[in-house]
Design a protein that fits this description.
Length: about 575
């Protein structure tokens, strides 16, 4: 696909307008799927493919596990892919992926291979340079490491979207046992391995990867269909799609998290009434005298990053030292320093590492509750949105506060909330026992990361969209008007600069009367020479030369012949 040069005004009258907009209406898209083992992803994939095709795109699905044998052979790596039963099939492929990542020492190796596979499908132009596909979407099934997502975002920029498919543990165990024939023990062991293989440097990290998604969908009741349909309409420029109450509140929770200067993580929370009105926001940071938290614009700042240490980490080290000294009494012939040296790394892997109570930071959920309390607003029956699953300490305050519902994105394995308060909260979305307990639900919808790109009319890094023209409402149709809102440019910024040079020559050489008679709309004036910012790619073409060849103009003046 060549970048299309279109007039900023009437496309049919390009001779009257020397101003051009660099546009990619047929830009490629890349989607990645992430889901936990035992999730029946197949209906989601099928529906995604169907909806992409309705938008006038071809859909190619690439399964990462299909490349294991070929990759192992090229690495001279001995792997065994077993298919005698479902347990061995899944376990052997987890092993294979781990071995390949370990051998290459590349946590993102399968993202690199995926990019190579996509590249291998490209045609070459006359100069033996790769050409972008026209209106094609590539779907990667599935991603297991955060590094894979990071690399794909670097390679494909705004053209890459990650979709997280949620199924709770009960649903996954049921699928593996009743549909795939695994024992309950086998299902539990695979689920544990898949979430996070702590002991393996290059093991799977599905849980960490899932939270990076741009869209979260669930399997229950085919709710994924509505989620995917809304998402693709936004991706393709629907001007009338707006956030749901959950999406808006979670976006504000993420926005609140950016205030945090905590050394460990940024967490945000938002309290909202059931109608969706936000009551208060909170983040995790050190409380200040007089109420609220310290901030960068306050009279004084005594947060941990200013003091230079995390008090909770320091206290854990003291606890470890004390435990070692106690055990020294049982080993009188050993030297204390030798014991300390050998025991400290082992104790760091124990439950001591889960201690959180000695930190100075107020947790985001508590900050949101306190903020509402300070201004005298009731939060009984409110909904709490938090970027991270609440810890057990926050959970007991959430229960006591009368919060009606909790929604989260990022899991928090250290939390003992479900163990300590199973009488008051319920975690599993498939729990058929709908009772007085407070539901802690995973977030489903458009993730906060691409909020401005997809929902904003003017602030998106893609093209500006409008809902009416000349006093009439825009008639947008998915099948007719689908065009990537933030297109992935097949050119680098250097190539786009070269095109601008050529365009400027054309503008400067145009007759004066042509320049003065140009009629543009306000949105076209704002668009300038480049109407759509693009991202770098490795296409490697000399764009001006390609444009000359495509239009049949071999001159260096930059004037075009024919239509774009």
């Amino acid at each position: 696909m060549q970048p299309r040069l279109i007039p900023a005004g009437d496309e049919s009258a390009e001779s009257k307008d020397s101003r051009f907009v660099l546009d990619y209406p047929d830009a490629e898209l890349v989607f990645g799927l992430v889901y936990a083992v035992g999730t029946d992803y197949r209906p989601v994939l099928a529906y995604l493919e169907d909806q992409i095709r309705l938008g006038g795109y071809a859909a190619d699905s690439l399964h990462v596990s299909d490349w294991f044998a070929e990759t192992a052979e090229r690495l001279s790596l001995d792997i065994r892919l077993l298919d005698s039963n479902e347990y061995e099939r899944i376990a052997s492929r987890i092993d294979a992926g781990n071995k390949i990542r370990t051998r290459t020492k590349q946590a993102d190796i399968f993202a690199l291979i995926a990019s190579s596979k996509i590249f291998s499908t490209r045609e070459m132009d006359e100069s033996d340079n790769p050409v972008a596909h026209k209106r094609r979407a590539h779907i990667l099934v599935s991603l297991k490491r955060p590094e894979e997502v990071e690399s794909l975002r670097k390679i494909y920029g705004p053209g890459f979207y990650l979709i997280g498919i949620f199924a709770d543990e009960a649903q996954r165990v049921d699928f593996l046992t009743n549909r795939k024939g695994l024992t309950h023990e086998q299902a539990e062991s695979l689920i544990e391995r898949d979430q996070k293989e702590k002991e393996l440097e290059f093991g799977q990290r599905t849980r960490d990867t899932f939270q990076m998604a741009d869209l979260f969908v669930g399997l229950a009741g085919h709710e994924y269909e509505k989620g995917i349909q809304r998402f693709l309409k936004l991706v393709f420029g629907d001007p009338f799609m707006t956030p749901t109450k959950d999406e808006h509140s979670m976006f504000l929770a993420y926005a609140a998290s950016l205030r945090s200067g905590d050394l460990s993580r940024q967490v945000g929370a938002a309290l909202a009434c059931t109608e969706g009105d936000v009551i208060s926001l909170g983040c995790n940071d050190v409380p200040a005298p007089g109420g609220g938290l310290y901030s960068s614009d306050g009279e004084a700042d005594h947060r941990d990053h200013v003091r230079g240490k995390d008090s909770n980490d320091a206290r854990k080290e003291q606890i470890i030292d004390d435990i070692v000294r106690v055990f020294r009494k049982l080993l009188p012939d050993s030297k204390e320093e030798e014991i300390l040296k050998a025991a400290r790394p082992l104790l760091r892997e124990s439950l001591v590492s889960d201690v959180t109570e000695f930190g100075r930071s107020l947790h985001a959920e508590m900050d949101a509750l306190m903020a509402a309390g300070r201004i005298g607003v009731s939060f009984r029956d409110a909904v709490l949105y938090t970027t991270t699953f609440p810890c057990h300490t926050c959970t007991r305050h959430i229960i006591a506060a009368g919060v009606k519902r909790v929604v989260y994105i990022e899991p928090y394995p250290k939390s003992l909330a479900s163990e300590l308060h199973e009488d008051a909260i319920r975690i599993l979305s498939s729990d058929s026992k709908r009772d007085h307990r407070i539901p802690f639900e995973p977030f489903l919808g458009i993730g906060p990361r691409r909020f401005f790109d997809l929902f904003s009319l003017k602030l998106s890094s893609g093209y500006t969209i409008e809902r009416k023209a000349k006093g009439e409402m825009v008639n947008w149709d998915f099948r007719r008007d689908a065009k990537p809102r933030v297109p992935m440019a097949p050119t680098s910024y250097l190539e786009r600069e070269q095109l601008i040079q050529k365009t400027l020559i054309s503008i400067y050489s145009a007759p004066e009367e042509t320049q003065s008679n140009v009629t543009t709309t306000p949105s076209e004036e704002r668009s300038g020479v480049l109407g759509t910012p693009g991202e770098d790619s490795q296409a490697g073409r000399k764009l001006a030369r390609v444009e000359d060849r495509r239009t049949g103009d071999s001159s260096t003046t930059g004037e075009r012949s024919g239509s774009a």
